[in-house]
Amino acid sequence: MSRHPRFRISGSPLCPAAQRAGLALALRGRDFASLRSPGKTRLLIRQAPGLVLAIESPVAMLELIEDLHPGQPLHPAEPALRARHRQLIASADAAQQALAAVLTARNLRDLDLAVFALRQRLLGIEAELQALPEGECSNLDIALAPLLWRLAVLDRRHGLHLGDGLPGAARRLALLLARPEARRVLSLAAGRAFLDELAAQGAVVALAVEDWDRCFDGAPGRKVLPLRSNPSPVPAQAAARPTLRPDW
Predict the structure, then answer these.
(1) Residue 113 vs residues 101, 134, 140, 164, 221: alpha-carbon distances, Å
(2) Quick one: average pLDDT of 44-59?
(3) Which of 98, 120, 57, 106 has the alpha carbon at shortest distance from 214?
(4) Environment class of residue 77 by beta-carbon count within 10 Å: exposed (0-12), middle (13-18) or buried (19+)?
(5) What DSSP state is assigned to residue 45?
(6) Is the pLDDT of residue 212 over 50?
């Protein structure tokens, strides 16, 4: 492979995988082009004239960018800690899927169940983060960032409290967003586009109060399953800790 490959990210710029790859490159000072196109998100690497490598796996994108920048490692050097980071990256992928279920819910029953499942995964990630030593920005932070950023945007715009009681995650997001390179990827414009996309899709979480009747099944005004205001137990001391907020 060329010593100076050129990078493009094709697909939707709002895709979490695209944002991860963009962060991994931007935090290393690498330029990349965004190519909006339908279909799956791909990291395109021009190795030589007429030779382009296309990667679709979000995890493989992070690992390949890591391997192509041996002088700028974002994985821990210590093998056991590196393995724990990779395990948490897999947990972040699962939590991202859980968030997708929240965003695609079309009635209160599905939303309630999806929020509960998401919160369980988030609390598991938080417990693991609390046990990790804090250090410099890593691939784990990059993998978590699109998820945590979405929670922060949703909480700030719609008051969902999805990110309550996650102080370790909040610190990592704040440290990442303190870097201008990260804010160029997870920008105010990207947040607005994300919210506009949810509204256009008719997501329950994006509905105004007067529109909630469409989330009731059966007779008008009958709710299938009550939506808990706090979908999973959060200790009082944890609720008082910093919540996720994008640094805009």
Answers:
(1) 9, 33, 27, 18, 20
(2) 86
(3) 106
(4) exposed
(5) E
(6) no
Token readout for 91 is 């947990």
Amino acid of residue 107: N
Encode burial over 129-155: b for 16+ CB neighbours within 10 A, e otherwise: beebeeeebbbbbbbbbbbbbbbbbbb
What percent of the residues of the chain are helix, what percent strand, and what percent coil, each to the nearest 5? 55, 10, 40
- Name the one residue in this structure whose structure tokens are 């209160």: 108
Question: 180 CB contacts (<8 Å, ≥6 apart)?
Answer: none
Once rounded to an integer, what is the mean pLDDT over residues 47-60? 86
Please, which residues have CB within 8 angstroms of residue 175's CB and are 6 or more apart in sequence?
137, 141
DSSP for residue 48: E
Angstrom distance (rounded) from CA 155 to CA 167: 15
Q: What is the pTM of this model?
A: 0.82
Task: For residues 28 and 22, give the distance between their C-alpha atoms in angstroms, rounded to a whole number.
Answer: 10
Q: Which of 105, 137, 132, 131 is nearest to 118 (CA)?
A: 105
* pLDDT tens digits along 114-172: 999 999 999 999 999 999 988 889 999 999 999 999 999 999 998 889 999 999 999 99
Please report, to the nearest 10 degrees, the dihedral formed by the alpha carbons of residues 57, 61, 63, 66 taken in order: 180
